[in-house]
Every structure is written in structure tokens, then in C-alpha cells.
Design brief:
Layout (H helix, E strand, L loop, with lengths): L7 E7 L3 E8 L4 E9 L7 E6 L8 E4 L5 H14 L9 E8 L10 E2 L2 H9 L8 H14 L5 E5 L9 H4 L5 H6 L9 H14 L8 E7 L3 E7 L2 E5 L21 H9 L4 H10 L2 H6 L4 H9 L3 H25 L4 E5 H6 L1 H8 L11 H5 L6 E2 L8 E4 L4 H13 L2
Parallel strand pairs: 1-6, 6-8, 9-12, 12-14
Antiparallel strand pairs: 1-2, 2-3, 3-4, 4-5, 7-8, 9-10, 10-11, 13-14
Helix pairs in contact: 1-3, 10-11, 11-13
């Protein structure tokens, strides 16, 4: 008698001191458990686990030192086992790993072996904050279940369809090639999921629509998607380029770094910290929480107002630029924490773009919902939509399709 095909996928997103995870059943699309381990390696480590099987369960929290990623994943395995969802279950088909940087080599989800691990490690110089942590999670999971397919799903993969004229920087070609300097883009799983879901919302196939996706969280990026394929995106060699973000500057004149080195005497590391951790909304007004910024604006805080205006101005520039790149736009779509929840950001970003066929309906924009929805009036030539992103589901789908379908 043939054993039933396993349908569960565990999705792991390993950071330098954290592990986020979800267990999904691809048979019916149900989430069985979600959780987070944070502050790994500290005395104040914390594991929060919520079983969702059968309609939900009580959130459980464990506090106390968790030494490393190996200990973290063992703790996660223990929590799952307590709910009858252990890693030894025959229903577990694979483990899907979010990997931030796949370079040009990885254009699709990939079953992990020693060669793949070595290539992810070779990419560490262009993703020093992310790939090492992703590797830790992969190696730990492989040690726990060496018999199980482990799949890497890359943030950069969706953007590898960019034409060379969009991906290349205008610098010496030999230097660029020698050091892998080009525009890679990030948040790819989100842009893939959201652009496809937006097409479904419009009742059309992804191949038929052109979409501008605005992924607005603490990290923020825009993409131009033509017929389901990314043709341009705002992040570049690293996640620093592009939109104004919570703590990242986005676009700046590269000569700013030379100026700070020569005139301010700042080191490379100090400039790196400035642009990645002390800039963006935090650098402009001291807050990176859009709700707090809006509250301060309502109280007459001019510094918060200017930060908001700079943030929105950059958004408008990218909407206009990607409209020109695509030639025809069927939808502009907002997603991620700010994009999904901050109605004033959506309103301000679209305001004044009526000549491009864009408009927002105030009533629809004010609605809060976890469902994909249109917020543009019926007369608008171009749809404006809000699509909650689901990167974990996208990773699970890609993983499952690779190992089972």
C-alpha cells in the first residue's frame, strides 16, 4: 500500500539573533503553527510559539538563555512536537529557508546540497548581514533532519529577470564583474506573491498585467512587474538603495560617503552604520514608526512633517519612473506593514497623479482589512490596491512545488 504524499512544509527565516518560523499544510493551505525565537545567544532569549491547528491554540512563551541557532531550532522542534507536529513527522515534506542573496546563480528555489551551501557562502561579501545567518539556520536544520529535502528560496530570485540595462550600474565593466557589482533587488518573495495576487484581484492572468508593487515596511522597495516578470526594482547591490526606509537612507549621491570620510573623518564602518541604521525616517525625525510620525504631525511637529514629505516624495518619484518603464500600468499595489496599514501614506503617494489615471477613494482607503482589496474609485483608469503580503506562504509554495509537485 502506497504511503500518502507528505503535505507539510516548515518555513524558516533565520536572522543573526533570531529565527522566525511557520508550519504550513500545502494540502489545504492551513497554517499549523507560527513562532519566533529572538535574542539568541543572550540571557534574555525568548521563544513565542502559537499552535494554530484545529482553529487555534494558546500562545506559549519561554524565557531564558538559548545559546545558539542549534539550541533555538531544537527548542522549536520541541514546541512543535508538543502539538503533535514534530520534525520527525512523516507528513513533513520539506523545510524551506529564506535566503536573502542568491546572486545571479540562483534564479529559482533550489534544493540545498554542499555545492549550494558553498555558493551561498561565496555571496557573503555582498550580503554580510544576512547570508551568514541564513547559513546558520540551514546547517542547523540539515543536522536535525539530514534525510529531509531542504530548499533555499532567494529574495533576489524574482528580480533576476531584469534586463541588463536595468541591472547594470554605469561603472567599469571589468571591475563590476570582478566584484559582482550590479543591482540584485530584494523582497523578491513578497513582490512575486503580491504581483500575482494583484492580477487575481483584477480577474486577470499575471501574464496579462503590468503592476507597480510598493513593499513598505521598515525596509522598503518598489518593483515594476511586466506580465509577471520583474523588469526593474529599487534596491540594488544591497538593500540600502531606493526608497526612504525606517533606518536606511535609500538613494543618496555616492559622493556623500567620500565627503564624510574626507571632511568628517568617518570610517567606512561608521558611514555604513550611518546610512543603514541611523538614516531614513529615524535620521530625519527620530522615529521609524509611521503611526508615531503621523501622531506627531497632527500635533504640529514640523520635523515629523518633513520626514513624511520626504518619504512620500521618494515614493512618487518611483511610481512615476516605473510608470515610464512599463509604458502601461494596470495597478499600483501597496503591501507590507506601512503599505497595508497606513492610509495617509497611500493617499499622499497617489495624490496629484490623476493625469496618470491614478486616484484613491477616501472611504475605501480608510477600510482596514486582512483581505486584498481595491481602494481606487470605479472611474480610475489604473487600479490602486492593497494586498497583504505573505512571504512565508510564497516560500512554502515554491518549496513544495519543487520537492513534491
Amino acid at each position: 500500500m502506497t504511503s500518502p504524499t507528505p503535505t507539510r512544509v516548515l518555513v524558516l527565516n533565520s536572522g543573526s539573533s533570531s529565527v522566525k518560523y511557520q508550519l504550513l499544510d500545502m494540502g489545504d493551505g492551513a497554517r499549523l503553527a507560527v513562532g519566533l525565537v529572538e535574542r539568541i545567544g543572550e540571557e534574555t532569549s525568548r521563544l513565542v510559539h502559537t499552535p494554530l491547528q484545529g482553529g487555534g491554540g494558546e500562545k506559549r512563551e519561554r524565557n531564558g538563555p538559548i545559546a545558539d541557532h542549534a539550541a533555538a531550532l531544537k527548542a522549536v522542534a520541541g514546541e512543535l512536537a508538543a502539538d503533535g507536529l514534530g520534525l520527525d513527522s512523516p507528513e513533513l515534506a520539506a523545510i524551506g529557508h529564506r535566503v536573502v542573496h542568491g546572486g545571479l546563480r540562483f534564479t529559482a528555489p533550489t534544493v540545498i546540497d554542499d555545492e549550494v551551501l558553498a555558493e551561498i557562502e561565496r555571496l557573503v561579501p555582498v550580503a554580510p548581514l544576512h547570508n551568514p545567518a541564513n547559513l546558520l539556520g540551514i546547517r542547523t536544520a540539515m543536522a536535525l533532519r539530514p534525510d529531509l529535502p531542504q530548499v533555499a528560496v532567494f529574495d533576489t530570485a524574482f528580480h533576476t529577470t531584469m534586463p541588463e540595462y536595468a541591472a547594470r550600474y554605469a561603472i567599469d565593466v571589468e571591475t563590476a564583474d570582478a566584484y559582482r557589482i550590479r543591482r540584485y533587488g530584494f523582497h523578491g518573495t513578497s513582490h512575486a506573491y503580491v504581483s500575482r495576487t494583484a492580477a487575481e484581484l483584477l480577474g486577470r492572468a499575471p501574464e496579462e498585467v503590468n503592476v507597480i508593487v510598493l513593499h513598505l515596511g521598515n525596509g522598503a522597495s518598489a518593483s515594476a512587474v511586466a506580465g509577471g516578470r520583474c523588469v526593474d526594482t529599487s534596491m540594488g547591490l544591497t538593500p540600502l538603495e531606493g526608497l526612504v526606509m525606517g533606518t536606511r537612507s535609500g538613494d543618496v549621491d555616492p559622493a556623500v560617503t567620500f565627503h564624510l570620510e574626507r571632511v568628517a573623518g568617518m570610517s567606512t564602518d561608521e558611514i555604513d552604520t550611518l546610512l543603514n541604521k541611523k538614516s531614513g525616517l529615524v535620521g530625519l525625525c527620530g522615529d521609524n514608526d509611521m503611526r508615531e510620525i503621523r501622531r506627531r504631525i497632527e500635533e504640529g511637529d514640523e520635523r515629523a512633517r518633513l520626514a513624511f514629505e520626504i518619504y512620500v516624495h521618494r515614493l512618487k518619484k518611483y511610481i512615476g519612473a516605473y510608470y515610464a518603464v512599463l509604458g502601461r500600468v494596470d495597478a499600483v499595489v501597496f503591501t507590507a506593514g506601512v503599505g497595508e496599514n497606513a492610509a495617509p501614506v497611500r493617499e499622499a503617494a497617489i495624490a496629484g497623479l490623476e493625469e496618470l489615471g491614478l486616484a484613491v477613494d477616501d472611504g475605501l482607503n480608510a477600510v482596514r482589512s486582512d483581505e486584498p482589496r481595491l481602494i481606487s474609485p470605479d472611474y480610475a483608469r489604473v487600479a490602486v490596491a492593497v494586498v497583504p503580503t505573505d512571504e512565508e506562504l510564497e516560500i512554502a509554495r515554491q518549496t513544495y512545488a519543487l520537492v513534491v509537485d
